[in-house]
Hints:
The complex is a heterodimer of chains A (about 280) and B (about 200).
Chain A: H1 2-8, E1 18-23, E2 33-34, E3 39-40, H2 42-63, E4 70-72, H3 81-92, H4 113-129, H5 137-144, H6 150-165, E5 169-174, H7 180-187, E6 205-210, E7 216-221, H8 229-242, E8 248-254, H9 261-275
Chain B: E1 6-12, H1 18-26, E2 43-47, E3 52-56, H2 64-77, E4 83-89, H3 96-104, E5 114-120, H4 143-164, E6 175-177, H5 186-193
Amino acid sequence: MKLIKSIFGLEESKAIRLVIGLNQVDNLDEINWDEKLNMPSKRAEAIIKRKCEDIIRKFSVACDISKDNFEFYSATKKYNLIPLLTKIIKYSEKNSFVLGDVNPADPFEDADDEVKTFVKQEREKREARTKFPKFTIEKFIEGLKETLPEKDIDRLIGEFGDAKKSPPKIAVIGKTGVGKTTTVNNLFNAKFKESSILVGTTKAQEKIFNLDSGGELKIIDLPGYGRSIKEDIEYDKIYREIIPKCDVLLLIIQADTRDLREDQKMLIKIKSWLSETEK
Amino acid sequence: MNKKPKKVLFFGKTGVGKSTTANMLFNLNFMTDDSVACTKIPQIEYNEDYHLEIIDMPGIGESLETDDVYMDFYREWIPKADCITWITQSNTRGYKLDQEYILFLSDYIRKDVKFILGLSKFDLFAKSELEKTFDYKEGQPSEEQLTLFPVKKNDIYGVFSEVSEGVFTLSKENIVPFSAKYNWGMSTLKEKILPQEGV
Lengths: 279, 199
């Protein structure tokens, strides 16, 4: 979207199109998860932040990666999924893809009944108070008509049309058993085939969603690495082919683990694959 | 008991619970920490009851930098081990790093070493991360866990056999699930580690 960027004077982003999700923060050892609210207590939240900062620091040292690329969450507890999704959208740099097109699973679904009822009521009240019309690109462009010359408007409409035709492609990768499939299910509220601890997902699975904005979203669930040397040689071929072609890659790392070496090695490889197709 | 004590070496990925396991089995005081790798150099303690020397090694896989530093310790201690208690987690599918290290260290592992494969954190072993079926109250595995385990054991045996051939003997009986946290399976693990009578 060079035109938009030139209009608003934004720099072309040099950020790598990668989001690293630190999953399963609810499993960090001394965390007491508030089951009633289905969220961490204030103290637990501080522990989560401290531990994740430590992991991020280790990655910045070993792999030269910015802390902006990281977000912590828990797929099983549906915790902090909106910030994660926001980051994915940001790094995908696709204008056809906005928050609201996809809605992550709601953590309060798993909260205490009392809490659930309360949240529902509060949300209804809030919705009634603030009835904004839904933001759409069409309306936004309509609003610009008074300030921009017609030929720019036409180009904008053309560009957004093109953006809609090419759906964002999100690939998801991570060590085996890290919860890739659960993450995808809850992040996009979709139903992938559940995989078990015994076998795992051994092929790249693709799933297409229709977005409210009229476009599409493509998720590629890659097989997990780190099971055995033999399998990884095969998977590397799959990764190498798929990763450069995706708009954004979500790398999932277990937050409650200390062995980061394999993930660091993979991140270095991923960076080189992604840079092959830097625009 | 004038014989030299046998050397039992605890080895495995960082965070799998090597120190915790050794402490529980032999009543030792190796330092442990939930979140930070704290065994930075090999720790050695002598156990009088069984006339054993217990060596707790720094864990593998912590980060790219530390693994190189630790390699020297591994080269020094692994050839001395009479028994290697290799610990890896039950609640994972990823054993590639274990494989890599068996290959790296294949020249240093004694061919006649007693190799025990301890599968830690069995309380967290499940079909998927969503279901934790362990009976926490009784400190016993669920029926489901016990039913699933033989498949898991075969799977792990297969993965380790890919690299152990010609390096050491891996027998299925020496693959032992346990949970140090809930004190389950510890006596079986200990029996396997202790030298057989008359040897």
